[in-house]
Amino acid sequence: MKATIVTLPGDGVGPEVTAVAVAVLNAVAEQRGHAFTFEEHLMGGCAIDATGEPLPAVTLAACQRADAVLLGAVGGPKWSDPNAKVRPEQGLLGLRAALGVYANLRPLRVHPTLAALSPLKNEKLKGVDVLFVRELTGGAYFGAKTSTADAATDECKYTVTEIERVAHRAFELAGGRRKHVTSVDKANVLETSRLWRSTVNRVAADYPDVKLEHQLVDSMAMLLLTRANCYDVVVTENLFGDILTDEAAALVGSLGLLPSASLGDGDAGLYEPIHGSAPDIAGKGLANPIGAILSAALLLRHSLQLENEAAVVEAAVSEVLTWGPRTRDLGGEATTHDIRDAVIAALDAAAQPVFFTGQRVSG
C-alpha cells in the first residue's frame, strides 16, 4: 500500500513522540511491503511563532490532501495567556472542523502489569476495556461566544444531524465489541441533552442487537471510578467527553499511554496521543511515546485499513509494557528512544519465521 501521512509534531514533547511513531510506522512499512510518505508541517505554538497563525494555510491544505494526519501536541506556557487573540488550541479546533472529523475515539484498557500504578484498587481495574466516542465538532467549544466586563456566554448548540452521525458511529463500533452503548448527557437540565437523548434513542432502533443505556454526566463521573469494567462503548457530547476521558485516563496510571483517533465519514483521520505538550520535560528524552505509537496503530486500522499491522503494533507495545523497559512515568528509567527501540525490536521478533525441527510445540 502507498499512503501519504502528514505529521504535525507541534510543541513541547510533540516532536519527540511523533518521531518515534513515524519510526514505528516505517518499521511496519518495511516489514509488510508498504510505502508511507511523510510530510511534516507546522501547527500550534510553533506555527504562531513562525507565521503568526496556529494553522497556516499550507498546513491545512496538506492535511486535506493526506490519507491521514499524525499530531504530536500543541501549546505550552509561552502561549498560555487565555486572553491572547491567537492561541495554539485554535489550530487544533480549526483543523478538526476543516477535516470534518466529528467522532473522537479514545480506547481505554488497563494493562495488567501496570494496575499498581493506578490510584484505584486493583479489583476495580479487572476487565476495564472502554471505548469513548466523543462528538468533536459541536457543542460549547464551537458555539457563539460573547464577553463583556461583567458577563460572558458560550453557546452550546447541537443539531439532530450532528448527534445522529456520532451515535451511528458508536453503535457500529459496539457491534464489533460487546454490543453495549452507554450514552452520557445531562437531560434532566439541558435542552441540548434532551435532544441528544431522544436522537440517540431513535438511532438505537437501527441496532436491535446492541443494548443502550443512558447515564447523567455527573453520575457517570462517579461510576467510571467505581465500576469502569461495566462499560463497553461510551458516547457523549464534546465538553462532557473531554472531561470524562481525561478522568478515565487516571485509571491506566499515566496519560502517556493513551491514543486517540478523530474520524469523519471518509477514511482520512487525525491521530494524536491524548497527553499535552509536557513542556517541563521537553527536549530531555523522557517523554513516554506509547500513546503516540498506539495512535499510529489506530491510523493503520482506521485510515489505511491495515488491521493486521495495527494489531501487530499493539501486540509489540503490550510486550514492552509487560517486560520493559519503562519510562519514568511508569516507574522506570527508560528514555523515549529506549521505548522506540524496544517496540521496533518486538515488531522484528514477531516478523521472524518459525522453524520446526520435527517436534510440534503445543500452546
How would you describe this protein?
The protein folds into 2 domains: 1-101 and 278-363, Isopropylmalate Dehydrogenase (3-Layer(aba) Sandwich); 119-252, Isopropylmalate Dehydrogenase. Helices cover 40% and strands 17% of the residues. It is built from 11 helices and 12 strands. Helix 7 packs parallel to helix 8 (238-249) and helix 10 crosses helix 11. The relative contact order is 0.16. Residues 354-363 have low confidence and may be disordered.
In short:
This protein has 363 residues and is of the alpha/beta class. It is built from eleven helices and twelve strands. The chain has helices at 14-32, 45-51, 57-65, 88-99, 160-175, 191-204, 217-226, 238-249, 290-302, 307-323, 336-351; strands spanning 2-10, 35-40, 68-73, 103-109, 129-135, 145-147, 152-154, 180-185, 211-216, 233-236, 261-263, 269-271.
Could you say which overall geometry the principal axes of the C-alpha atoms support? globular
The total count of strands amounts to: 12
Mean pLDDT: 93
- Name given to the CATH homologous superfamily of the largest domain: Isopropylmalate Dehydrogenase
CATH first level of the largest domain: which class?
Alpha Beta
- As residue ranges, the low-confidence spans are 354-363
Which sequence of strands runs across the widest sheet? 2-1-3-12-11-4-5-10-8-9
Task: Provide a count of the helices.
Answer: 11
Q: Percent of residues in helical segments?
A: 25-40%
Radius of gyration: 21 Å
Key attributes of the depicted protein:
363 residues; Isopropylmalate Dehydrogenase; two-stranded antiparallel ribbon; 11 helices
